[in-house]
């Protein structure tokens, strides 16, 4: 049994629970997600680098932000308004002896995205790693129930914001720097109750493959991660309790994923260990989908 299985023992599934606002709050979850493992001992893979992680206050982004700090990177976090989660993450990052800055605001606003990048470069002097990870979702039974407002908001936050951050970051990046995007298993298998969300995740896959080709000649690598069912605030904040009943237990590995399952794959994509990878996606889904 892995350390993660021992710590979480969620092979019976999650206890369905609801939060009344999105983004959800990690400290209100029972059990709280596992975002850090003792088995991840930093070895300076990102020493002196500067990383910006959107959605880095909680869930997958928090795990990645702390993992990068353990590897020696200074970290900036963009998030909407979950200030308690963000402060807790900042405190943990600073325990690693690196700097952390918090940038609260709505990434649907293009000027906010450009300002965050400028603030990061001003404060830290450079930007080496951009993790485009923040997202939202709303369950609807049918495509005909998706309002124009929901469709626009989901694309604004999940896809257009990633494009804004990418455009803002590239002028500050050089050979060896990396861009990383969070997609979803849903982009590969479809999801009839998250059609707009799933479409944004498909757009991200196409975007990564295209930008990777553009930036290869500059030595800037562009990759992504496609998580499966992961126990994060997004779940109680957006999925009805009946959809949480079987969350992750039908995966071949028999449990929901945890944010901590993402740390070392995101470290790999940010570091020299993946020097010959670009335009690729790593699938973290307990074996629920096996392809590229
Ligand atoms: N939890 C899961 O089962 C899966 C999650 N993912 C993806 O993982 C990524 C991270 O999500 P989780 O860690 O699951 O949840 P989370 O709720 O911890 O993270 C979502 C983040 O997005 C940020 N955010 C949302 N709207 C924003 C806005 N308008 N402006 C600024 N920030 C905003 C929130 O502040 C939050 O930090 C997302 O891209 C999600 O689509 C993909 C597949 C499965
Ligand atoms: C699989 C997936 O993307 C969610 C959020 O459920």
Automatic annotation (TrEMBL):
InterPro entries, per this entry? NAD(P)-bd_dom_sf, Sc_DH/Rdtase_CS, SDR_fam
Q: Does the keyword Oxidoreductase apply?
A: yes
- Residue ranges, annotated region (Disordered): 1-33
The record's Gene Ontology biological-process terms are: bile acid metabolic process
Q: What is the top EC class of this enzyme, as a single word? A: oxidoreductase
Q: What reactions does this protein catalyze? A: (S)-acetoin + NAD(+) = diacetyl + NADH + H(+)
Q: From which domain of life does this come?
A: Bacteria
Keyword Oxidoreductase tagged:
yes
Per UniProt, the keywords (alphabetical) are:
Oxidoreductase
EC number, as in UniProt? 1.1.1.304
Which Pfam family, any one, appears in the UniProt record?
Answer: adh_short_C2
**GO MF term (any one):** diacetyl reductase ((S)-acetoin forming) (NAD+) activity
- What family does the database annotate? Belongs to the short-chain dehydrogenases/reductases (SDR) family.
Query: What's the stated role of this polypeptide?
Result: Catalyzes the irreversible reduction of 2,3-butanediol to (S)-acetoin in the presence of NADH.
Q: Under which name does UniProt file this protein? A: Diacetyl reductase [(S)-acetoin forming]
Lineage of source species: Bacteria, Bacillati, Bacillota, Bacilli, Bacillales
